[in-house]
Amino acid sequence: MTLAAKSAATRSNLVRLRRRRDQIEKGAALLRRKREALVAELFELARPAVDGRRKIDEQARLAFRSLLEALAAAGRAELRALGWPTREIRVELVPHEVSGIRGVELASPPRVVRSVAARGSPSGPGDAAPAGATEQFERLIELLLEAAPEELFLRRLGQALSHTTRLVNTLEQRVAVSMDRDLAAMRRTLEEREREEHLRLKRVVSRRETR
Description:
mainly alpha; rod-shaped; Helix Hairpins
């Protein structure tokens, strides 16, 4: 049921409906500006994100290639032993907000790559391949940690853009169109009443003049 069907066709309701229609237009304009800001932000972050993904892909290929070399040189059991003990990597996150979208940033670049001495593993002629694989995977972890906050923010940015676009389309293509029909129907009803009232007054005047 439309608004016109629920509201009586009166001058006050017509004015009220016009005001609501103006509010819808202002709201849609605000959402369009927000959508434009989100699109601009998305394009600004897209290129660095693409470059970061390419670096991650390249580093992943290097890391797994070096892992195969380490497996061939030392075997699975020795590599598993070299992987212990595990360590905890801590990063500091700083909150930030763009266009109402909350995200986080790394307070400082992560430092994951260690020297051979810092790893606490023996170093010998046969340990070059495992040490190389370890370093390549540590570099891969650094790249992943650097990219994670940006990827999360890009995902939230895309979701916000999709949500804003749906709201704009709903306001412009459904709500505004429905209210325009309601306004047109209410105007027609009021104009018909005015014509009927005018004709009735003319008949009354004509009868009085005849008398």
